[in-house]
What we know:
4-stranded mixed β-sheet; 2 helices; single chain; 28% helix; alpha/beta; 22% strand
Amino acid sequence: MPHLVILYTPNLEPETDMTALCRTLADAMLSVRDEAGAQVFPTGGTRVLAYPATHFAVADGSGDHAFCWFNLRMGRGRSEATQRAAGQALADAAKRHFAPVLARRPVGLTLQVDVGDEVFDAKFGNLHPLFAKG
Length: 134
């Protein structure tokens, strides 16, 4: 973990590149540093996944309104300042990405950061060793 999940109304797809947004947000996550200057999120564990909602209703139905929800889930052990810095880095990157769309149409954007209180947390596979240093 960390995982950033994006849930969005599909009426955004013709107006913005969601794959580019995922890459932008992953890069933002990888740029976050803690108080000691260490990279907060492991490269091999950083994932951004975006899903269009098959069915949706936004606001009062008076227009073709759009919405995008970002949920960052990270494991415990990071300071509150680091958690806030991660959220702010993502919010800033999302605002830059969506600026052209926001200039043309109403879009609701929400970003939330959750810290895990896992009962069970198994990590396995062969992705992390690709990014091991040393």
